[in-house]
Structures are given as C-alpha cells and as structure tokens.
Amino acid sequence: MDASTSSQSLSFFDFLDRMRNPASINLVRSIKSFIVSFSFYPPNPESDGKRVQEFYLTMETAIREHPLWTGATEEEIDCAMEALEKYVMTKLFSRTFGVSHEDAKIDHEILEKICLVQTFLKPEHLDIPPILRNEASWLLAEKELQKINTFKAPREKLSSIMNCCRVINNLLLNAAMTENHVPAGADEFLPVLIYVTIKANPPQLQSNLKFIQLYRRQAKLISEPEYYFTNLVSAKSFILDLNDKSLSMDEIKFEENMKAAKLTTKVTSAASQVTQTNLANQHGEKKIPGGSITASPLQESEYPYLEAKSEEMTLKDVDRLLILYKDVVAKYTTLCKAISNLPPSDKEPILRCLESQGVGSMLELQPVIENKEASHAKEERK
Amino acid sequence: MGCSASLPERSSNQLGRGNSENGGGQDAKNLRVKLVLLGDSGVGKSCIVLRFVRGQFDPTSKVTVGASFLSQTIALQDSTTVKFEIWDTAGQERYASLAPLYYRGAAVAVVVYDITSLESFNKAQYWVKELQKHGSSDIVLALVGNKADLHEQREVPIQDGIEYAEKNGMFFIETSAKTADNINELFEEIAKRLPRPSTN
Where residue B102 sits, what CATH number does that domain have? Predict the structure, then answer.
C-alpha cells in the first residue's frame, strides 16, 4: 500500500468519524435519503450517473458551508469528497455496477475475443520493439489491471487503471534512458497497453469503464487520469473490433489462428461438458471403469463394443472389431499429429486443457496405448 | 534521429498523484488547455513535446513528463499562464479509428508531419479533414513540419505547408525537435491564439 492509498483510507475513517458527530445530522440525512431514493426507480445508468454527479456537487457546497469544515483547506474538502464518493458508491454498488444488459453483452464479447486472441498474439504482431518486451513489467501491469474488480469505489477502480499505465509509462521512460532509443510516446504506449490488456483479460471491462465514467467525480476524471482512462477505452475498442487487418500478421494466418483458437475453446467446452455428464452419471446405473466417454444410446451405435464382454463375443466379431480398431487408431494418430504440429504457443493451452480434464498427455501415451490395444486384439483373435 | 539531446534525464513523473492538480482551474488568468498531437508514427510528435517540456527552466512550474502524457505551464507577457496538457496519440494506421476518443474536447490540435516524407504530409491532411469534420468548432489547429534540420532530404516544400495551412485557417510552422528550432515559438503562438474566457 503506498502512501497515498493509506492516507486515503485514513481520511475515509476521518470522514465517517465526522459523520457520527451530531453536528453532521443534516449531511447524514441527505446522504441516506439520496441512497434510499435509488430503490424507488429501476436502474438507468445514464440518468443515475447524472443524479449521482449532481449529488456530489450539492454535497460539496454543503460540506464547504458546514461548521465542521470551517477553515478547511482545499485538500481537506477534496478528501471529504473522495470519502463521500466511496461511501455512496459502495452503498449503491449493486444497483449501479454492471446493470446494463448491453454492457454485459459487450463484456462477454470482449472476454470471448480476448480468449481467442490470447492463444496466438505475440508482441511483434503489434510491432512492439524488443526493448519494451519486458515480461516482469508486463506481468506487474497485468496484475494491477486485474485488480479492477476487487474495488467498489470508482476512485479505486480508476487507480487500478492508473497503476497499470504507470508501470507501462515507467517501462517506456526507462527504455528511453538506457538505450539509444528514440522515445516514441503514444506510438509505443498504446500497443503495450493493448497487449497487457489482452494478457490480463480484466473482468467486466466494459462495465468497469462505464462505471468509472458515470460515477467518478467529474472534476477528477480530467487531465492525466482522463488520458490514461481514454487509452484503456481505446484499447477496449481496438480489441472489440480486432480483425485480420488489425495486426502485423498475414490475413490468412490470422484467420487460421482464429479458427484454431475457436476449435480449442470448443474442445474445452465440449470436454467440460463430458466431465459434467460424467459427474452426473456417477449416480446413475451405468459406469464405464476408467473411461471418460458416457454411454448414451447415440454413442452405443458409434462404438458398438464399448459395453461388450469377452465371453459374449464370437469369431465373427473379430473382423468388425479390427476395422473399428484401425479406424480409431487412424483418427487418433491424425489428431496427435495435428496437435504436435501446432506451434508450442497453440499446443500448450490444448495440452493443459486435456491435462486438466484428466486425459493426461495424450501425445506421450500414444505408443503405450497402441501396443496394449494391439496385443489385446491379437489375444482376441486367438 | 529525433530527440537526441533531449532524452529525459530525470523523470519527475507524478502519475496519478496530482492531488493539488486543482481540476477546472479555468479562470481568465490561468488557462488549462487540452492539446492533442496527431500525425503519422515516426514524425517526431513526442520529441517535439519533450523538447518543449524540458526546455522550460522555470523552477516554479509544475511539469509532468510521462511517456505519452505531458504537461507544462508557460507564462505569457500579459501575466497570464497557460497550462498545456498534452495528449499524444498513436500514429500507426491501425489506430486511426480511435483518434476521436482523444481529440474529443481538445482546445488545440497539433498536426505533425515530417518534411522528409511526402506520405506523412498526406496523412497530416487526412487528420486536418478529420478534425474539421469531427473536432469541436472552435478548436485551434496548428500544422507542423518537423525535422526541418534535414533540409537536404526535404520532400515537402515549405510553400506547400504554408499554402495548405492558409487554406484551412491553420497556424503553420516548421520545427526541429533535434535543434529545438521553433519549438517554443510553436507553443507560444498557440497560447496567443487561444480563445480567452471573457471576464471583466
């Protein structure tokens, strides 16, 4: 916690203290009735934002004229206003944050887009020069941005954006100092911020930006904070509209990457569905030992011997079993080859996903399974 | 090329701590002005501002030197001060559609090109048209031909810059961020052209 944050929280308690003073009864009444008034209407972000901003201004005048703040410096008034904003918006948080369906839709679109792009995006695709490719700095910036949802107060959400930008800013300034590197300002800042945003995948980005814009005191969303806020808005738009022309990447290659990424996410969601059905089936009658494939009627026709017992089988079955076995092996080896041919960056998420699904590293297991199955088949032929 | 001598030595970056920043200090004597920089990447936009911000040696003035946001206050002869808040924008083509987010509400737009690149001059004209269409109506526009020290490689005649600026009601100047030529003149001229809030 840096000095400004701790002094801010001190001043928040100081504000609450003053509110407990009997002399503040009128201020407390206005605040309470303002908060209660929100339960009379359905949420409407635009007009709610306007009402809150007007309330801030009314309260600022009231605080300036209040006996408890007689002779207060500008800074003390400002602290009181920060505390007021925090108090009011924490109380109104569930009624004001993420209530717009439109924003929720955009949140989802951004999330989906980032999940896809994350699988293949490299710094060079945004022409980020090598001197700025500093994993440690980027990780720090990502962490700051990811904190955005841990706060309810608009000021704190905004400062998580500011902290992220501060890290990037320092990285750029250091690069300008150490090397014979010509500072390129925003030409470098924005790409790094976009890259960091994609890596961080901050939760509910659109809702958070909207919330800050509507409920951060207008007098505070100016100048430097406004600049960095605007940059994140701009990064968000870029990501949302990202297409085959947005990156330094061949258009065909981009499409391929997107397709592969979509496939991966489909496999992931399909796999998680299988696990879910498995879990549900655990209480059912049929259970396949060690298997992760459920025995639905449809799958029975596709894999006719899955439930078969050796004593039930006749010689006639061998031919069919062999054909099916060859088919399965052919499909399996093609799949393995396809995965191992992917660049490591694409392969890793798939392997990680398979591992997390309990499938294990299918690439390494390949020969073992093949041998086992082959000997099984031989035995059966006898 | 570019900034050479003006590499930042000690960064006094005070990101986010501007408590005493005193928002909206918009009285007639002390103006706070949002200035947006537009232009192709590589024309030296940030070098111009770095030169400007670092070139002011008034120890009382509060400066912010970020990598892409800078602020600097200058005092004019009529004892007014102008605090420039300078918003740099990414000049690469792929970010062109994002520019309106930045120039919205700007009092000044400085469009920069590189006199050794005809392409950057064409891009500058694109920005001017864009600003005339979508910028605020009373925005102060300046056209700047940078890298004037590289006159042997000049591709854009000074006359072309002057004529284009005149036609579009803009202030025109050629600068060199490298030699600091005309840098202060640029900002002083902008300050003079700002509309003043009317007071008694």
Answer: 3.40.50.300
